[in-house]
Amino acid sequence: MEPTSSKEPSRRRLSKRSLNVLSALVGIGTLALGVGWLIYSWIVDLEVPYFAIPLVLTVPVIAAVAFRNMWD
């Protein structure tokens, strides 16, 4: 009886450069959504929610890091 092979098919990995570019695009896209939401809420409510400004600046970094960690 032959031992079963525990060979798993190898996953295709992205290059470092493309991973960096995609992570930057995710971060920039998230930042654009956050800034757009701030501008929209300022126009509609005529008041900027000051608690949201730090969130808009930090969430894109968190999103980019989470996206990058999906590939590691």
TrEMBL record:
UniProt keyword list: Membrane, Transmembrane, Transmembrane helix
Domain of life: Bacteria
Identification of the protein by name: Uncharacterized protein
Organism of derivation: Caballeronia concitans
Membrane-spanning parts: 21-43, 49-67
